[in-house]
Amino acid sequence: MGSPDPRQIDGLGGAHPLTSKAAVVSASADSGADVDYLFLQVAVDRPEVTGRQNCGNILAGVGPFAVERGLVPAGGDETAVRIRMLNTGEPAVARFPTPGGRVAYTGDAEISGVPGTAAPVVIEFPQGGSPLLPTGSVRDTVAGTEVTCVDNGMPTVLVPARTLKVTGYESPRDPEEDTALAGRLREIRLAAGRLMGLGDVESATVPELTLLAPPRHGGAVTTRTFIPVRCHTSIGVLGAASVAAGLRLPGGVGEGVAELPERGDRVRIEHPTGFLDIDTDVDTGGFAPAVRRTAVVRTARKIFDGTVFPRSADPTPAQGR
Fold first, then answer.
1. Under a CB-based contact definition with an 8 Å cutoff, are residues 267 and 261 in contact?
2. What separation, in Å, do the N-terminal and C-terminal C-alpha atoms of the chain show?
3. Mean pLDDT, the chain, as a whole number?
4. Is 123 helix (H, G, I), strand (E, B) or coil?
5. What is the spatial distance between Cα 30 and Cα 84, in angstroms, rounded to a whole number?
6. How does DSSP assign 166-199, residue by residue?
7. What is the pTM of this model?
């Protein structure tokens, strides 16, 4: 990837956490999955690789890759690949077109923030085993701020933007340059991490923090997401899934901020470069709320197939030099 270097000149990274990621895919030994997917986040300015979080955007390419590499046979005009996400142990199913037994990448699906169109990859997340509310409460006070901590594939802390004295409509660059806001976000994230059972998250990228503001373009809510202090130029798939589920919880901090649709499971999450639609069905009638179904439409395109040559390890400096 070219780390540690803020421009990642000597590598394939794009000098931002969103473009400094890797997926490791292999045939699965689990009878309920076809392939295993391990997501690795590569720090840009530090020599650090972590698997403590998952990534739904990279997940969109796992199914097509599995067919391309012969890990899963094409299943006719459409192929479904069962994926075990090793970072969380949770399952996902990716469906995408494979006419003639070959992966089709061209299509009409359009994703906000992604140039052009491509074939749709429908990703469905069956009900997982992790609790939707890691703290056991729909609303917690963390570092003096009321939040809702949710985990629907990505540990996420929902915070009404107004409680941090921002609008939630700022461009991604503005909150990154706000040192006072950065300090508050760090304080909330560290405290929330402990409360959510994640331990010391000082060097981790989870939980993510998502600021909520009323929608401006017909969606359910406007978001600004931080991983951990860099402001996402859009929103991750699993982060959006957690936001959508959190908005459906009676008593959560999304009440009075979000405008949920009267019918259907679809929730439109607005973000800095457009929107992302998430289908989420949450059961709130039991002892603890649980997600019955989550699905999202994404796209993936094959860009490169070849060999990457890593830089050789630097020799140990001679003594006294």
1. yes
2. 28
3. 93
4. strand
5. 8
6. --S---THHHHT-HHHHHHHHHHHHHHHHHTT--
7. 0.78
